[in-house]
Design brief:
The protein has 9 helices and 7 strands; from the N terminus they run E-H-E-H-E-H-E-H-E-H-H-E-H-H-H-E. It is of the alpha/beta class. The protein has a 7-stranded parallel β-sheet, sandwiched between helices. The longest helix has 26 residues. The radius of gyration is 17 Å and the shape is globular. The structure holds NADP nicotinamide-adenine-dinucleotide phosphate. NADP nicotinamide-adenine-dinucleotide phosphate (NAP) binds next to helix 1 and strand 2. The site of NADP nicotinamide-adenine-dinucleotide phosphate has 32 residues, from helix 1 and strand 2.
């Protein structure tokens, strides 16, 4: 069957590496972005130059209307989605919990949690064999922060990833008999732009000596785990987690 992947937040970092690897592995790819249209277009062109097929769609994960439009665009342009990577995510400047306000909590949970739930809902509607679909696979991009808690940095972000872990466990069981597998990766300390949004672009360098492997990770190392979880090689794997954090 045609492999059609939606990868949210595919303009940069882990999502961009995943989009490129997915295209290499024969997926037709829809990568999404929030603002950085040029970065998304660069990834699309890199995929096309390698002979792959990709489009980029602007869709804010904090907007249900954008998410509905994203899935309708994929239906119309690429065909029914068979793989969803819930990758888009944000964090905000490092703060203690005492200094986090409700506006920030709403932004974090809306983008990281509500957006992932709504994308999963739209994917399940289309994939479920119970609803006439052909099945599929979902990979949620959580974080080791879900089990480390990120004290002094961003407990809100860590808790949003805890919610993603719980959704992975529950949804995996809910749709296991409908041809859909749901798994998660939990990266940590990957060299991407996200640390700059936390106010510390060099965070990975600062913490790397506390990582058992004594190094940060590369986005493509996470992408390989995501692609394995999406693949038929992982056909008996659902409700599972792969941690990619150098042993931390
Ligand atoms: P990144 O380099 O900052 O890239 C973030 C991506 O998400 C970009 O494509 C961005 O689009 C998109 N995005 C952000 N907010 C969005 C929104 N509201 N709606 C739609 N798209 C949005 O991040 P990354 O490090 O690759 O992170 C990817 C995922 O891995 C996130 O879920 C993150 O929590 C998780 N993670 C990362 C690390 C790490 O060490 N890097 C560790 C653990 C977990 P624009 O380009 O348009 O802004």
């Amino acid at each position: 069957m045609d492999k059609v992947a939606i990868i949210t937040g595919g303009s940069r970092g882990i999502g961009a590496a995943t989009a490129q690897l997915a295209a290499e592995q024969g997926y037709t790819v829809c990568l999404t972005y929030r603002r950085q249209q040029q970065a998304a277009q660069t990834i699309v062109e890199a995929i096309q130059q390698q002979g792959g097929n990709a489009i980029a769609v602007a869709a804010d994960m904090a907007s249900e209307a954008d998410i509905l439009r994203l899935f309708e665009t994929v239906d119309a342009k690429l065909g029914t989605v068979t793989a969803l990577v819930n990758n888009a995510g944000i964090l905000e400047p490092q703060r203690r919990l005492a200094d986090i306000d409700s506006a920030r909590l709403n932004r974090i949970f809306q983008a990281n949690v509500v957006g992932s739930f709504l994308c999963a809902r739209e994917a399940v509607k289309r994939m479920s064999t119970k609803q006439g679909g052909r099945g599929g696979a979902i990979v949620n991009v959580s974080s080791v922060a879900a089990r480390l808690g990120s004290p002094g940095e961003y407990i809100d972000y860590a808790a949003s990833k805890g919610a993603i872990d719980t959704m992975t466990i529950g949804l995996a069981q809910e749709v296991a008999a409908e041809g859909i597998r749901v798994n998660a990766v939990r990266p940590g300390f990957i060299y991407t732009d996200i640390h700059a949004s936390g106010g510390e672009a060099n965070r990975v360098e600062r913490v790397k000596n506390s990582i058992p492997m004594r190094r940060g990770g590369q986005a493509v190392e996470v992408a390989h785990a995501i692609l394995w979880l999406l693949s038929p090689q992982a056909s008996y794997t659902t409700g599972s987690f792969i941690d990619l954090a150098g042993g931390k």
